[in-house]
Amino acid sequence: MLQFADKTGQVGGVIWDNHANLVTGTIAADDFVRVQGDVGEFNNLSQITAKKITKVDESTIDLGDFLAVSPRPRAEMEAELDDWIARVKNPDCKRLLSVLFGNPRLRELYCTCPAAAKVHQAYIHGLLDHTLNVMKLAYSIANVYEPVDRCTLITGTLLHDIGKVRELDWRRSITYTTEGRLLGHIPMGASMVDATINELRRKESFDQELQTRIIHMILSHHGKLEYGSPITPKTREALTLHYADNTEAYMAVFTTEVDKATTRGQAWTPFTKMFDSYLYAGKPAPLPEGAILPPTAPAETNHGGPVDDVRPPR
Asked: How does DSSP assign 84-151, residue by residue?
């Protein structure tokens, strides 16, 4: 049983013979390969019956063909990130964000990191894309349900998923690091931010209650213990972040799946695990002549990664 993928999506496959190179490990997971075979369907999903699989020299590969990238330009999103940081007036929050996002290595990781391994915004720059959407949603909620401390809200929201830069590895395909599987991005992110604040306190000062409120936002943003948060939201800012994060994750998946169905000329999506349902895309527009359809994604399965990669919220 095989899984083939490039930046357009993934498709399942099988090979019945000529598979010695797979059995011996000459070809392994995450290798680049050339596949000869037949495309058919199994359980209403596209599937390749491979006849021959040949390893391809990595030096001939353009990684941009295999890892999807955010539809929004990075420069545009970074400018928006800096605009949110500039709105922060609280001196402690401002110093914290300046130290973290002023670190060139950390900023590069933050701006290139995917938001997830499989579910939503699973592409390069996905974390930045997701976080900015969450930020706008959180601000909209805050404008309705006052009083909300805007400086704390911006700081906690921009940092809520920062642990993903250590949880995920996106050098070849998007997968989990050993540290990510063992610890998860929530405690790792809280630890990173807490250590930075403690260092700031040693040099100057940092309000203790503010530190606790920011760390609480990171630890509680999944909302429920069964979704990976060690604590549930207990402040206005934490609750605002949780519902903004939850809404963004669901709407990102909905939009992606419906857009794929529309492109395929289908009124309904395949069964979508995140919603436990098929999703209605509306009356499909006629496909242009000669259109190349995107693959139908295989059904989501629990592949042994952290639970929050196969179950919302993110």
From this structure: HHHT---HHHHHHHHHHHT-HHHHHHHHH--S-SSSSS-SBTHHHHHHHHHHHHHHHHHHHS----HH
Q: How is residue 135 written in tokens?
A: 């930020």
CB 142 within 8 A of CB 153: yes
Residues 120, 70 contacting (CB under 8 angstroms):
no
Q: Does the pLDDT value for residue 146 go beyond 90?
A: yes
Residue 21, both tokens: 């190179």
Q: What is the DSSP letter of 44?
A: T
Distance from C-alpha of 185 to C-alpha of 188, rounded to nearest angstrom: 5
Distance, CA of 314 to CA of 312 (rounded, Å): 5
Q: What is the mean pLDDT of residues 292-296?
A: 56
Minimum mean pLDDT range among 134-138, 215-219, 241-245, 261-265:
261-265
Give CA–CA dist 152/233, Å, rounded.
14
Which class in CATH covers the domain with range 74-251? mainly alpha
* pLDDT for residue 300 is more than 50: no
| Angstrom distance (rounded) from CA 181 to CA 194 | 21
Considering the chain, tell me which residue range(s) the CATH 1.10.3210 domain(s) occupy: 74-251
For the chain, how big is the Rg over CA atoms in Å? 21
The answer, yes or no, to whether residue 9 has pLDDT greater than 80, is no
H or E element that contains 50: strand 45-55
Which positions ≥6 away from 228 have C-beta within 8 Å? 184, 186, 222, 306, 307, 308
Which pLDDT band holds residue 289 (cuts at 50, 70, 90)?
low
Mean pLDDT to the nearest integer, 179-198:
97
3 pairs with which residues across the strands?
12
Structure tokens at 213: 């409120």
Q: Tell me which residue of 310, 266, 284, 304 sits closest to 44, measured CA to CA.
A: 266
